[in-house]
Amino acid sequence: MATILYASVSTTEQTIEHEKTQAQAAGFVFDHVVSDDGVSGITTKLAERDCGRRLFDLLRSGDTLVVRWVDRLGRNYEDVSDNIREFMRRGVVIKTIINGMTFDGATKEPMAQAVRDALIGFMAALSQAQAEATKEAQKAGVAHAKVSPNPLKPKTYLGRKPSYTEAQISQITSLTGEGKGVSEVAEQLGLSRPAVYRVLKSPAEAFSSVKAWA
Prior knowledge:
With about 210 residues, this protein is an alpha/beta fold. It has helices at about 15-25, 50-60, 75-90, 110-145, 165-175, 180-190, 195-200, 205-214, and strands at about 5-10, 30-35, 65, 95, 100-105. A five-stranded mixed beta sheet has the order 2-1-3-4-5, sandwiched between helices. The longest helix has about 40 residues, at about 110-145. The protein is elongated and about 55 Å long.
């Protein structure tokens, strides 16, 4: 029986090493790492990615699959929920780094099964909603930056230089969407509470500011 970490990132500012460090900090010890650092999780189904096919080939009954969050397991609600159920049918236990959730197909008690399946549906839907919200905020930020004054002109005032990165904006919206408080998110990402509040007030403006200063 093996423990396999599936690490996936979708921006150049995120790293596989960061997810490995998070998993180890949460107490996970893994035998293999399957990584995906080139494909956005909202554009391609897991089974259609090279790393996804490797994951399906590698996992066996009794293995444990570790992921940062369930959104790593698909591009949308249907993909995430289908993949979780397929892994469970194969006898694989899925564990998340965030909140330490466990999805185990060996559960036989009807009420426990109902709670588990409802939770899978809710988590998959939440993952898709967060991904779409982040994508729309990025689009709005880019569009706003295009009509803003040229940052190369010396007299252009760009406002206060943001203390956060594009990746951190996505992480802030994701973590708060999972129920984490502002103070906890700020501490986890190494940001000030006011910076987190600025991002939450308008993710689109936050993306725009980062783009303008890039």
